[in-house]
Structures are given as structure tokens and as C-alpha cells.
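Exercise (ungraded).
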Amino acid sequence: MNKTILQIKDLKTYFYTDAGIAKAVDELNLKIERKETLGLIGESGSGKTVTALSILRLVPFPGRITGEILFHGENLLEKSEEEMRSVRGGNIAMIFQDPMTSLNPVYTIGNQISEAIELHQDLDRLEVNKNVIDMLKKVGIPDAATRQRDYPHQFSGGMRQRVMIAMALSCNPELLIADEATTNLDVTVQAEVLELMKNLKEEFGSSILLITHDLGVVAEMSDKVAVLYAGKLMEFCDVETAFMAPQHPYLEALLESIPRLDVDKERLDAIAGTVPELVNPPQGCRFHPRCKYAKEICNKQEPQLIEIEPGHSSACLRVDEIYH
Amino acid sequence: MSERMLEVRNLKKYYQLKAGIFKKQVGFVHAVDGISFNVKKGETLGLVGESGCGKTTAGLTILRLIEPTAGEVFFEGKDIFKATKKEMRTFRRELQIIFQDPYSSLNPRMTVYDIVSEPLKVHGLARKKNEKTEKVSQLIKKAGLSPHEHMHRYPHEFSGGQRQRIGIARALATNPKLIIADEPVSSIDVSVRAQILNLLQDLKKEFRLTMLFISHDLSVVKHVCNRVAVMYVGKIVEIAKTKDLYNNPQHPYSEVLLSAIPVPNPKIRRKRILLRGEVPTPVNPPLGCRFHPRCSYAEPACEKVEPKLINIGGPDEHLVACHLRK
């Protein structure tokens, strides 16, 4: 039943800048099954957005991608630009963080959604228009037939994000990449958009790659969780394990450090230090300068991602000592 | 303990809305529309609400960084809005602000030393040079940076968290009594956020600060604040002790807001209240209770009469503005 739709193998996306090589994503291995939501957690600079852009091959200059990105077994990195164009928006769609900058201000939203449909499906004008209105209704935009003639600035932030979702789902993609899709929204609007994404996922049967730094959103939406830190995958497991029994010091520390509604705490357990630079990441384990368990070995040897139990991998040299 | 340090009475800030080539006035944005609250000495009061509810405008107006339309603000019994220029200087020393975005609230052409020493210079708090240097390095140290290493660097050389530390050092320079913190951790990385929150907590204790903490993040507010005021479209709908508000919200909007926060625990599946409609514009806010078009408990009275903020908690002061709670 579970079928892998996307498999990332040894993905390396490096940016060759004047200051040096920034290893934004370094030897990433990931798998997304059908109808599954994978939550990709990371802070700014952890490589989560670059991962998304790599999948769609939209990484800007001077970035270079190597490795394999297998979509239904076919390597996307070997496809021609033309083939890629039909994948983008067709098989794999993406919702960006900021709906204001990702919608074109001089076209009506109806125009923009129909463009996506026309590119990927062979339909006549009337059918396209009907689809547009259907999609807008599905994402909960009232009075869709009239609103499709409006421009992006006539919509509120939450409504714009709904338009983005309508556009992304208009071609019934197998994989939806949501990059911080609700980060800029107010909590009540975020709640609505998350609910909407959940329902549409059921209806369309898509898989979702949910990229966010909000652990609450991940807990609520995901089946599996992948944790990135400074371009490296630190931990990969199902959502319950991630929040109940994490087996990497970074995820453990992150969960301890956030203020939460469900736990009362006098003082937060802050993680010392700051997020490292990518041009000169720390030697050995990239988290070791901030890790409370770090020993000498951690700054010498780079940990590999190993499976500690079925479906649960961690990249920590001392995982056995710390967690068993 | 319960001495009032800051008292805000019926504060209003309307912005004029102009249109056309002659900039004819066509209406008002009712950004803050008659809010009243107190901040007691030594406490942290949270001011929460969604974007556009007027929480930042409220903070800026209290400091007179923007001029109010109406209302009064008393700081230790003295009316800030009636203050003369000279009195205003004292207020400015005793009231400080920490901004949301540490990238745009620090002058890129000034070194950390310049930034932190400027308030000292303006208020004549350190006349001699070595006195100033001494004071600045103390402040920098208090904010968790190293004077030796960081004092003569420029803001661009720092990370977001470190920049916020510079902003905090600057706010502390005048030895203020009250600090308004406007979303101080919103633009900071998750793993660094706790450091800044802990720092604020420590400094608050050490300097005996009173704080008005403006934020949209209810998890952070719960951690930091003693009492919380909830705003919706320019009005305060509920004020209560943090514990009371989170365990037992009385206003329907507070209830919705709390139910909307995703909790980082996959085992907790909470019932979520979804709102109908959208946030009304503060240009033409709904009559009566501003929340009534979206409220699932709304009654006919809610459309006509504006509810007053009344105490339903007895000595514990749980204020709520809702017709259904009497």
C-alpha cells in the first residue's frame, strides 16, 4: 500500500559564492510515501527551503545540485528543462511563504489559476473557467465567480494563501510542497488554512512536504518528521516518536527550549550559541558547539545518519550512550 | 505591589484616510479605539491580538512616539500627554522600548558602542568618556555580549539574536522603570528565542522592571506575562491573570484564539473553533460588539450595544467585554 513517491538520495546543493562554498544541503536522504505528510523542521539557514527548491530544480545561481531526486523512480535531476516544466505545478506543486510576492499583482487571480490549468491540462476555455471557480470554492472563497475577477491586493493575507493553495491544487498534484505556508498568517487564519490543507489532502490524496519551524504545526499535521540543522539531516522518525522520544540532542533541546501551552515552566532551557554559518560550518557534528552532551569525539568525527530502530534514524555519535 | 505604574484611560488613535488627488479626507482608521488598562509595578502585562488589532499602535502612542487622538496615559500618576517638552525628557528616560525587528531598529552606520551610549549622551547620564565606556561595557555584558569583542562592531556583523541583545542593552541604558517590548522575539530563530526570553526575565528581576509585552504569540505570552489583555479590532475584549485567561477564557474571541494555537504534542487533538468571515476593517468596524459578526454566541443585543469591560472575577480582576457574561 505504501508506495514511495519521492526519494531523495545524497542530495547536495552547494552555493559557490565569493566567500566560499555554502553547503546549504549536504548529503540529504529522504523519502516521502504516498498520502503521507512529512514535516521538515529547521531554522533559518538549515536548508529546508533549498531542499524544496532543489526538488523542483529552482535553485538560483550560484547554486548547484548533485545527487538523485527520484520521483516515481525517475531522476528529476536528469530531466530536460521542458520535462521539468510539466512536473512543476503538474505533478509537484509548491505553496510559498509569502502569498503577496508569489502572486502577480497585475493579473486577476482567476487569470493566474487558469494559466496553471491551461499549462498542464488540455481543456477548453469554459472548462478551465469552471475549474477555476470550483477550486476557489473548495478553498473556501465566498462568491468565487465574482472574486475570481479580483486582483491579489483585493484579498486579505489568509485569502491570498487560499488562492495559492487553489492554484497549487488545481492540477491535482501528487506532491504538494508547503514552504512555511502559514508562517505569516494570524493564528486563527492559520488554523483555517491548516484545516483546509488537511481536508484537501484527504480529498485529492496528495502527499505533502510541510516545511516549517513551528513545532506545533508539525505535531498537528505530519505523519513523519525530518529535522534539518545547518544543511544536515539530524533525525527522521514518525511524529509521535519525534515529540515523545526524540533521539537526537538537537530535537530534544529544541523541544525543551520552546514556550508551550501544554507545559508550565519557570524558565526555558535555552540552547546556547547561534545557528552556524554555512560557509564555515563547525567540524565534526554541526551541532556540537551548542550540544550539552558534546564530547571530544563530536568535533572530530562527522556522524552518519543511522537507523536506531525501524523507521527512526538519528545522526548522533553518542546516541547509544545518551538515549539507551 | 499592586501600585499602578502605568494607567491608560480611554486611549484612542485614529488615522485619517485620504483619497483622490486633493487628498480629501474620506474616513478614519480606528486603530486604537478607546482602550483602558493598568500596568502594576513589577508585573509584566501582555497585550495580545492578531495583526491589525492595534497593539503596536497602542504601544507607540503610550510613548508618544505617535500622537494620540484622545485619552490619557498616566505614568506614576503624571499625565504623559499633557507633559511639557522638559517633562517629556524625563518620561523618555523612564520609559523605553524594544522593537520587533532588530534588523531595522539599529542604525547600520553606528557601532554597538555608539548605539548603546547614545541614550547616555542624550540624557546626560555619563559625562566623562571613561565613565561612558565603563557604563556601556557593563550594559553590553548584562545583555550577554562581550564588551571586549563586540563593542566596536557594526550591527551587520551580528546575528538576529545578538542584535536583539544590542537593542535590549540600549533600552536599559537609561535605567528605565518601564519597558515596552513590541514582539521582541518574533523575528528570532526558534533555538535562540529561549535565550532572549530568559535574558528579559533575568533583567526584569535585576533592574526591577515593569513590562508591557506586546505579542501575537500566545505561547510566549503565557510564559512571560503575569496578566494578559486581549485586543480585537482596536478594543480590549478581556483582561485577566495569565492563568485565568488560559484556563478559563471568558470572551468568545479569546476562546477562539486559544483554541487556534497548534500545540507541539501529537497526542493532544484539540477541538478547534473555526471562525466564520474575516477580521473587519478598522475603517468601518461593526456596530455593537466588534466580534458579533463572527461570534457563534451572538444575540440581537450584540449587534446594537457595545459591551463594556466589566469585572466578573471579584478580587482577582477578570475583566471581559461581552454581553453574555454578566
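Further reading is listed at the end of the chapter. For now, observe: Chain A has a mean pLDDT of 91. Chain A touches chain B through 48 residues (CB under 8 Å).
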